[in-house]
Amino acid sequence: MRTSGSVYPDGMIVFRVLKVLAWLSLAGIVFATLVPIELRPHDFLPVDVDRAMAFMITTLLFVLAYPRLWVLCAVILVCSAFGFEALQHLSPTRHAHMADAQIKAAGAVAGVLVGWAANKMTRR
After folding, report:
1. Average pLDDT in the chain
2. Buried b (16+ CB within 10 A) or exposed e, 5-19
3. Cβ partners under 8 Å of residue 78, min gap 6
4. What is the spatial distance between Cα 30 and Cα 83, in angstroms, rounded to a whole number?
5. What residue intervals traverse the membrane (predicted)?
6. Cα dist. 87→21, 31, 40, 58 in Å?
7. Residue 91 has pLDDT above 70, yes or no
8. What are the angstrom distances between the C-alpha of 52 and each of 8, 17, 30, 79, 116?
9. How far is CA 96 from its chain centroid?
10. Highest mean pLDDT of the ranges 32-36, 53-57, 118-122
11. Which is nearest to 98 in space by CA: 88, 85, 84?
12. Dihedral of alpha carbons 62, 63, 67, 71, sign
């Protein structure tokens, strides 16, 4: 089904927007994780909540944007939580901790669960 004046089927534009948001969100995580500490954005949330939420939202966006590839999204984003943390060793102002990576990975798992459930509900 097409909308008037649109060349994309009704849901197609939603998937395109979700894909752009997912990749921009991942780029934001890479930036916040790897830049020198003085350039890192700050907000009002506790740092662990901030880490978990960033990965949860990013993974949620990827699972919604690529519903058939949700397992791949889960594996890649959980692994990237550990990979990005390890890459902090390259920056003299950053310090990598396994606990930080675990919090990020837990956020990614939560995002997968929420995204998977949302995809299941919308298919009905």
Report:
1. 87
2. eeeeeeeeeeeeebe
3. 105, 108, 109
4. 10
5. 20-39, 60-83
6. 23, 12, 15, 19
7. yes
8. 34, 23, 14, 14, 18
9. 19
10. 53-57
11. 85
12. positive
* pLDDT value of residue 40: 76
Copy the structure tokens of residue 91.
Answer: 């920056």
Residue with tokens 């990237």: 80
State how far the Cα of 12 lies from the Cα of 29, in Å rounded to an integer: 26
d(CA 61, CA 22): 5
pLDDT of residue 1: 46
- Alpha-carbon distance of 77 to 26, in angstroms, equals 9
More confident residue, 83 or 36: 83
Evaluate if residue 35 carries a pLDDT over 60: yes
